[in-house]
Design goal:
235 residues; alpha/beta; 2 domains; 6-stranded parallel beta sheet
Length: 235
Amino acid sequence: MAKFLILQADYPAGRGVRGMNLCRFLKIFHGRRAVETISTADLKRSGRKTCDTLFIGMPTALRRDDLAQIRYGKAILFDYLDVPGAAWYDSDKEFLLSLSDRYLKAWTEPGWDNGIKFGVLPIRRFPGLSFGLRYRRATAWLRSERECDRTYDVAFVGSLTGCSVANQRVQWVREVRSAGDRYRFWGGLIGSPSERRDLEQQLGGSEELFCRRRRVGFFVYFRHLLQSRVALAPA
């Protein structure tokens, strides 16, 4: 029997967003055998599961009949998505709220849904960050940086989280780009060829919104953030 069972979110995103970041965190503190992950589709084909705590990734296609496969002590909802508040989408909100009033997010804000107790999820930190910070401290004597001397006014690199004009990342990069030469900008959106085409069709032109690099390595990203006066951090 696993101490924790993570039901992965039914969302077209990376494994970390679907629940693996939480899984890694729990394994560090409770051991590999204490944690199990499963998708909603696999749950329907699996045998009975038993756990102390059931984490349900949002949004989810989970229905009451599916839950009959699981015996658990308590349930907790969670999501790693870049949206404020609970990410219900097409989930059965009434059913899920009957299971738990606890909800974990990557960040919290006052004024979110009443009646839900929001908590904070563990964030996976890139291993190179510690090395980058140590290197920066060790080479501080080589630099005489001041905020006004930085190369860029604004920096942002981020993957598309949905090819929609209403996407907050798209809106923010469009706003910066529409200012012309007013801001010295580094970065842009990262997207697959199909995502680029979808956004191009909606906007009638979107090339300036995308980063020139198809992929941006961590140390390149870190260096440019340090050279910028402002780093955009969409919710």
